[in-house]
UniProtKB/TrEMBL annotation:
Name this protein carries in UniProt: Fibronectin type-III domain-containing protein
Ranges for domain Fibronectin type-III: 30-127
SUPFAM superfamilies found in the cross-reference section: Fibronectin type III
Record-annotated membrane-spanning stretches: none
Length: 443
């Protein structure tokens, strides 16, 4: 019963300044409404733009409605008032498929509010269907994209590294990797950006701009590393010919040789993921790595800690799982809400598992190679010839009362692109990179 009362108080706290401004003297209200006010729908969000005057303070009014004004917006569901905003302004937390409306007015140096711009209505919709390519980032293939410290980072062949601020469009900056090695793996560990690749190359940076080369040891220098992750007090890299190496957590600040692990496979290992909360034994989480590779290879690894006196060492134990396919597997991801692993590979292969033991093949209407998969508002995989595979997911309750997820899969295209190598979800969008400097984005 108290919730409506508190909501009313919150709205009054926002509206009273406007009323006070209207009652005070001083500056007169702006004569005109903000000009060129537009609303562009995104994935669970809207981006508002207008011609901004630095001498004005802008007020945005929004609600789930066909039309709103500053006087009635708070009579509709999901009403929002934002003061002191700047163009462009992005409002998130909207429900896809619902109609929202927006208007804006302005004050000047504490004046009353001026007239409002005409109301703009939009319907947010999931990203992943329409793609906008960016200018090529050089001519080398881009192999991996990740995010960290408010930046997207793309790495690729011949030491290619490009960065762009999250939320930005097309403002990529070429960085000096201090190496000409081909880079296939990227990781942000919460503090440092890391990349690995051919000839055991490892580089890192605190800001993704100034990079340092790290010695990984003689054995690792003979390897090409395709993927990198961290968890269980180690770094773990996988690569060609079944190579699995571990690095100490201080591998960047106190370099020492990376240690080769026994993988019991000679298949090329192409991708991995670390799941810190995967398996519970006696209410204790047992972390796991999941690695995928050529010829249907799926390995599950657990980290073992050994203490000898004051020395602590770590090793990994690997178990090969039956994938039910001989396709080359290129990408893997896990989503805790959906409770599933997703793996993609050659010939349109898509596998799913809730426990890493039993894998189910999803029949897709494509035979194109799929190279990477990510999860935003929808599941999205990308691959050869610009192929995209999308799935909306919905939940229901099973007979046992547990949540059951259903997926509606469809095949699309990101355009005339020879190959997309990786994709990431973020900022209500998907960002993919690929051959010959390809970068493309879907909002």
């Amino acid at each position: 019963m108290l919730q409506p009362f508190y909501k009313t108080l919150a709205r009054l706290a926002l509206i009273l300044p406007l009323l006070a401004l209207a009652a005070c003297g001083g500056e007169s209200a702006p004569a005109d409404a903000p000009q060129a006010f537009t609303a562009v729908a995104g994935d669970g969000r809207v981006t508002l733009t207008w011609n901004q005057d630095p001498n004005m303070t802008y007020w945005v009014f929004a609600a789930q409605a066909d039309s709103v004004t500053p006087d009635n917006y708070n009579k509709f569901p999901e009403s929002v008032l934002q003061r002191g905003v700047s163009s462009p302004f992005t409002l998130t937390g909207l429900t896809n498929g619902k109609t929202y409306s927006f208007t804006i007015n302005a004050t000047r140096n504490g004046s009353p509010a001026g007239p409002a711009a005409p109301s703009q209505a939009i319907v947010p919709r999931p990203a992943g269907t329409t793609w906008t390519p960016g200018a090529p980032l050089g001519s080398a293939d881009l192999n991996k994209i990740g995010a960290g410290s408010s930046q997207y980072v793309a790495v690729g062949n011949a030491g290619s590294i490009y960065t762009v601020g999250t939320g930005s469009v097309g403002l990529w900056v070429k960085q000096n990797a201090k190496t000409t090695a081909d880079l296939y793996a990227y990781l942000f560990n919460g503090t440092n950006h890391m990349a690995m690749g051919s000839a055991g190359t490892l580089i890192y940076s605190t800001d993704a701009s100034t990079w340092t080369v790290v010695d990984t040891g003689a054995a690792a220098k003979a390897e090409r590393f395709n993927a990198l992750a961290t968890g269980g007090n180690i770094y773990l890299a996988v690569g060609q010919g079944g190579a699995i190496y571990t690095g100490a957590t201080d591998a960047l600040t106190a370099p020492k040789p990376w240690v080769k692990q026994v993988s019991n496979t000679t298949a090329n290992l192409n991708a991995l993921i670390y799941n810190a909360q995967w398996k519970l034994e006696n209410s204790v989480a047992i972390p796991r790595y999941v690695v995928v590779g050529d010829s249907g290879t799926i390995l599950v690894g657990e980290v073992t800690t050994t203490t000898t006196g004051s020395t602590v060492s770590y090793s990994t134990t690997w178990t090969q799982k039956t994938s039910g396919t001989d396709a080359n597997l290129y990408g893997v991801t896990y989503n805790s809400v959906l409770g599933s692993y997703f793996v993609v590979g050659s010939g349109g292969t898509l596998l799913m598992s809730t426990d890493t033991e039993t894998w189910t093949k999803v029949a897709l209407p494509t035979t194109q190679n799929l190279h990477a998969i990510t999860i935003g508002s929808r599941v999205l995989a990308v691959g050869a010839n610009g192929t995209t595979v999308l799935a909306a997911y919905t939940s229901s309750k099973g007979t046992d009362g547990k949540t059951v997820w259903s997926y509606a899969w469809s095949v699309g295209s990101a355009g005339a692109i020879s190959k997309l190598n990786d994709v990431i979800a973020g900022d209500g969008s998907y960002l993919a990179v690929g051959a010959s400097g390809t970068n493309t984005r879907s909002f």
